Amino acid sequence: MNPIHLQRYKVRSYEVGPSGALKAVSLLNYLEDAAGESANLLGVGGKDLMAKNILWVLSRLHVKIYRYPHWEDIVELRTWPFGWKKIFALREFELTDGNGEVLAQATTSFITVDSEKKKPINFETALPGFPLHPVRVFEDPLGPMPKIKLDRPYLERPFHVRLNDLDLNRHVNNAVYVQWALEVLPDDFGKSSGPKEIEVAFRAETAYGDQVLSRSQKQEEDESDCLLHQIVRGNDGRELARLRTRW
């Protein structure tokens, strides 16, 4: 079986922003959709694993956007499982336009979790074998993410987890964390275009009705195009995600 899965999308009007370009969050939804379809074809999709009380959980995400497609453009998204790094399963993505120009690339890492015990499990015993494609779209060690320095100025905005934010497993959808981050930007960021790079480290989950705080902070002067973000739970300060965006 070919491990490379191809999926085509037509950019819909509800997926774009005021400029007519695809929203960053809509792009993340494409990645999630294609990854799910690929996993289904390989026999390790959500329904296959739910029968064994196993979940795929996204741990890290790194997306590079070279050019955003626009309303009514046809794009092709290829995705494939790359391999394993310790307890993490790595999956790659590449988005192209009708002429084959690369618009965006992404690398991700997932873990398999026991849905009842809420603990990671050994993928070698949990998953059937499936083919891999040993090519990464770009190298990324997926190492530790920097944290906002609370002794320096930062922006903060509260949100509440809505029913609309939840996925099939009643978890906050991964793209929602990015949406919260992109709602809290300095005035000189995000006015004319979306981010050209997004990195996320997911650290904990939150539940319906919880208050979350989205924080953003400009990086040091030598990285003036970079923002750090942090999503924390309001009632106990638990860190839910760290993000870094470049503009």
Short précis:
The protein has 247 residues and is α+β, with helices and mostly antiparallel strands. The chain has four helices and eleven strands.
Give structural notes:
The chain starts with a strand and ends with a strand. The longest helix has 18 residues, at 24-41. The protein is an alpha+beta fold and 247 residues long. It has helices spanning 24-41, 46-50, 123-126, 174-182; strands at 5-10, 54-65, 74-85, 88-96, 102-114, 119-120, 155-160, 197-202, 211-218, 226-233, 239-246. The chain folds into two domains: 5-126, Thiol Ester Dehydrase, Chain A (Roll), CATH 3.10.129; 155-246, Roll (Thiol Ester Dehydrase, Chain A). It is built from four helices and eleven strands. Strands 1, 2, 3, 4, 5, 6, 7, 8, 9, 10 and 11 form an eleven-stranded antiparallel sheet that branches. Helix 1 runs antiparallel to helix 4 (174-182).
